[in-house]
Design a protein that fits this description.
globular, transmembrane helix, Amino acid/polyamine transporter I, about 65% helix, about 500 residues, disordered N terminus
Length: about 500
């Protein structure tokens, strides 16, 4: 037998496909006596967490980009198609979150179905969604923040608002090299400290900001609808230019793969299952409710923006503000900027929250250092993990520009979503006797549609993104082989 060189004891046997039963997962998290975390979140707070994770850069930026470059007014259909694809995934998430109401989200679900190595892969993928996603949105937040300050006559030194690795030829970048995007890093650190302070406190802050940005979105829709010129909607789906993805229905499909980024965040609700008051009831409400509300709002804003001005004018950083400026009401542009800042703030909050809860479960299983599973004795939050994760995300947000960060977020998220749908199929077949407080309808077609939707959207991403994903996964598998797989067996 192979010896452990540090202790002289027999080395642990690796079992890459070991699974944890649902009963074992529930027992390890002490759900029978209330769980490790403080249960502070009800259905309203969970729905607000989901909305906070969804409404952000997508609705305030991608609406114009997709309309101008790919779909024209048909961006409305792009949002609807992306929302439909997410609906399949949301139903699967809801079933698993109600069945296994613990903090690990897709990581834990995969451990119970496909086995340990796939659980590691999905956990490593979720770093792309939550960690790099938070950094990406923080850079967008800093851009809006700098524009607001500029409108007030305040201009920060460009070297401290430009990432070190940013292209100096971009508008607003520092001459030569930037040093560090300080506003992006500071907002991440501030929200990390708020999350470390307590789930109840951060939830109240999130609920307030969600209320603000929902009010802004509704004002845009109801104010802008009276300024719609139907001539801007003709044709609603512009004729294809002869190249796939450039207008026509292929452009609508290409647009759906791009605006999918807008929906990233609804699954953060599942990471809060262990902090929900009644997770079997409240988590499905939060997941499905937040997705449904945001899809309706996305479609409404896209229709108003492309109806008020020509879609050809919307390829700008603040397309909704441009549309509102066209109404002649200058104050509406300020309303939109405030809504954008509020929206981006809660997206960062939700993604940082989700990242530490996934790390908590991975560390609890021994795949990561135990510090990530340590809860604060008073706040009942993974406070140390929250600060460490916040510091790493802040560094990424300060050093890297948005065009480098956002390329990896969608593909990591889509692969995680596909595995969640597969987990539902597996458990329905392997353990049909389990009590499921929420059951996804249309089995097996709903998860099958979810898998194929995710794969189709992944296929629309450029080859460079796939290469970066393979490099990222190779690094993750090396870490798993030399650390995680040994630690889990020693446990």
């Amino acid at each position: 037998m192979v010896q452990d060189t540090t202790t002289g004891a027999p080395a642990p046997t690796r079992n890459f496909f070991a699974r944890k039963s649902v009963d074992e997962i529930l027992a390890e998290n002490h759900l029978e006596d209330g769980g490790n975390f403080a249960r502070a979140l009800g259905p309203f707070s969970l729905t607000a967490l989901g909305i906070g994770g969804i409404i952000g850069a997508g609705i305030f930026v991608l609406t114009g980009t997709v309309a101008a470059k790919f779909a024209g007014p048909g961006v409305v259909f792009s949002f609807a198609l992306a929302g439909l694809a997410c609906a399949f995934v949301a139903l699967c998430y809801s079933e698993l979150a109600a069945l296994i109401p613990v903090a690990g989200s897709a990581y834990t679900y995969t451990y119970a179905t496909l086995g340990e190595i796939f659980a590691w892969i999905i956990g490593w993928d979720l770093v792309l969604e939550y960690g790099l996603g938070a950094a990406t949105v923080a850079v967008g937040w800093a851009g809006y923040f700098n524009r607001v300050l500029h409108g007030l006559g305040i201009d920060l030194p460009p070297e401290w608002t430009t990432a070190y690795f940013a292209d100096p030829s971009h508008a607003g970048a520092a001459a030569g090299h930037g040093v560090f995007n300080l506003p992006a890093a500071l907002v991440v650190l501030a929200l990390s400290l708020l999350l470390a302070r307590g789930t109840h406190e951060s939830s109240r802050f999130n609920n307030f900001i969600v209320f603000v940005k929902l009010a802004v979105v509704l004002i845009v829709i109801f104010f802008g609808v009276s300024y719609i010129d139907q001539a801007h909607w003709t044709p609603f789906v512009p004729e294809n230019t002869g190249e796939f993805g450039h207008f026509g229905w292929s452009g609508v499909l290409r647009g759906a793969s791009v605006v999918f980024f807008s929906y990233i965040g609804f699954d953060a609700v599942s990471t809060a299952a262990q902090e929900a008051k009644l997770p079997q009831r409240d988590v499905p409400i939060g997941i499905i409710g937040s997705l449904a509300i945001c899809t309706i709002l996305f479609v409404g804003v896209a229709a108003v923006a492309t109806g008020v001005v020509s879609y050809t004018t919307l390829n700008v950083p603040d397309p909704i503000a441009v549309a509102m400026d066209a109404t002649g009401a200058g104050w509406m542009a300020w309303i939109v900027k405030i809504g954008a800042l509020a929206g981006l703030t809660t997206v960062i909050l939700a993604l940082l929250f989700g990242q530490t809860r996934v790390f908590y479960s991975m560390a609890h299983d021994g795949m990561l250092p135990s510090v990530f599973a340590r809860l604060h004795p008073v706040y009942k939050t993974p406070a140390i993990s929250q600060v460490v994760v916040g510091a790493l995300v802040a560094i990424a947000a300060g050093l890297f520009p948005i065009e480098i960060l956002d390329e990896m977020v969608s593909i990591g998220t889509l692969s995680a979503f596909a595995l969640v749908c597969g987990a539902v199929l597996y458990l329905r077949r392997k353990n049909p006797e389990l009590h499921r407080p929420f059951r996804a309808p249309g089995i097996p077609w709903v998860p099958i549609c979810g898998i194929f939707s995710c794969l189709a959207l992944m296929g629309a991403l450029p080859i460079e993104t796939w290469i970066r994903l393979f490099v990222w996964m190779a690094a993750g598998l090396a870490l798993y082989y030399f650390y995680g797989s040994l630690r889990t067996r020693r446990r």
